[in-house]
Give the backbone structure.
Amino acid sequence: MRDGLPNPEQLISEIATARATTIADYMAAANGHYYATRDPLGAAGDFTTAPEISQMFGEMVGVWIADLWSRAGSPAFRYVELGPGRGTLAADALRVMARFGCTPAGIDLVETSPTLRAAQLARIPNAEHHDEIDALPDDAPLIIVANEFFDALPIHQYVRTIDGWRERMVERQGGALAPVANDTPADDAVPAVLRDKPEGTIVETAPVAAAIMQRCAFRLARQGGAMLAIDYGYGGPAAGDTLQAVKAHRFVDPFANPGEVDLTAHVDFTALAASARSAAVPASPLTTQGDWLQRLGVDARLQSLAAAAPARADELKGQRDRLVEPREMGDLFKVMAFTAPGWPAPAGFTGDTA
């Protein structure tokens, strides 16, 4: 036991019983333990997110917010971040926002991990924590940031078998966990456009992500504001197994050592947009992180930082390339914005809203 939580072997026993555990329940249980018991970020952790790579990332988020706020008439608003990691993004964004006179009426962080809450308060002492979106204040518009948040939410997986579509479950096999197909038909759970895919095809759905997106959108519709979602993902519907696990910056077996590895899946941004539309909140076109950062001026910011610290020019250029270049995070990571009715179109996107 660790802080009253089960160890990995106990999690295996609890998670896999009588083939009754969905991939979604497995992810929820494993990630719940994982995030509650550690700070997973940085070189000493399991993975590194964009805000930890360079201050330029959070600064561009701050520029985006300040620009939107200004064109909306400079209203009072609350800065909200979902799963804010160590608080690095928020600290960088808020610093830049303040230069434009864009100071939020409140800073609200949706976080359940005690370890990460402590790290966030060390950087943003005046932040308020909440366990869920429904607990957010309703006294002002919200500008919500969700960077690498949706990818860690539980997904369901369905596999095309010789007998039709079946949900993938997790069961114990010889002391280890492995995915297996359920016996119950699940054709209706698969989008109609994908049902004719060949045997062996895997399709993923993310109802938890859809529900959270819808709750955020209803808040925006009632209170005003906007939301920015940045994550690795795609425009769906699409087939494929994207469930992955990372430990010590390496990909590992997602069914080994539950609760000790970071489990994620790629985000279907088309599904997020559909959830927002159900609350009458339009979504921006989907764009890549690289294009979005360049439209907001990351290259000009790089030049400014390099001029102020010439000895770090190569280091800063490497950070920029890691965020922007297609072979790095630039194409894999996508960006989508959601704006309340009556709010201006957000910067960094081209084309019509979704």
User: Anything to note?
Assistant: The chain has twelve helices and 16 strands. Residues 50-150+210-232+267-339 form a domain with the Rossmann fold fold (CATH 3.40.50.150).
